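Quick one, C-alpha cells below:
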C-alpha cells in the first residue's frame, strides 16, 4: 500500500448472512460454506455433461444424470491422484490435460506400451495418475 493511503474498507472480511434457520451464526456459517461447494459442483456439471440432457423423457434424463455423476466422480478422483493442481481443477481441465492424451499405443510382445509426446507439459501428472492406478507404463 502506498505511503499515506489507508484501507478503503478495514472490515472487508465480514459479510452478512440472512437465514430463516434456528441455528446460531457459528452453526449456520459452516453449512453456508458447504452449500457454496455444492454449487461449484453443480456449475461444473452444467458446464459439461448436464449441458446436454438428451430428451424431455424422464427415464432418459435419469439415466444420463446417473452416468454424468459417475463420470464426474471418476474424473475428480483421477485429478486427485494426478497432482495437487488437478485436485483443484475443474473437470474440463482434467479432461483436456489427462484424459485426452496425445499419445500412441503399441503392443510389442503382447504388452501395451504407451508413447507420450517428448515435451508434453502434463507428463509427470499423467505418470503419477497411471502409477496410482497400479499400471506399469513404458514410454
Amino acid at each position: 500500500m502506498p505511503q499515506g493511503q489507508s484501507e478503503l474498507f478495514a472490515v472487508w472480511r465480514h459479510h452478512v448472512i440472512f437465514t430463516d434457520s434456528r441455528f446460531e451464526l457459528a452453526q449456520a456459517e459452516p453449512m453456508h460454506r458447504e452449500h457454496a461447494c455444492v454449487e461449484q459442483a453443480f456449475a461444473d456439471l452444467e458446464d459439461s455433461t448436464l449441458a446436454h440432457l438428451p430428451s424431455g423423457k424422464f427415464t432418459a434424463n435419469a439415466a444420463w444424470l446417473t452416468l454424468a455423476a459417475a463420470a464426474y466422480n471418476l474424473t475428480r478422483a483421477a485429478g486427485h491422484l494426478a497432482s495437487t493442481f488437478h485436485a483443484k481443477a475443474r473437470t474440463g481441465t482434467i479432461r483436456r490435460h489427462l484424459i485426452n492424451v496425445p499419445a500412441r499405443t503399441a503392443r510389442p510382445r503382447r504388452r501395451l506400451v504407451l508413447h507420450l509426446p517428448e515435451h508434453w507439459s502434463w507428463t509427470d501428472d499423467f505418470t503419477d495418475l497411471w502409477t496410482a492406478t497400479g499400471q506399469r507404463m513404458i514410454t
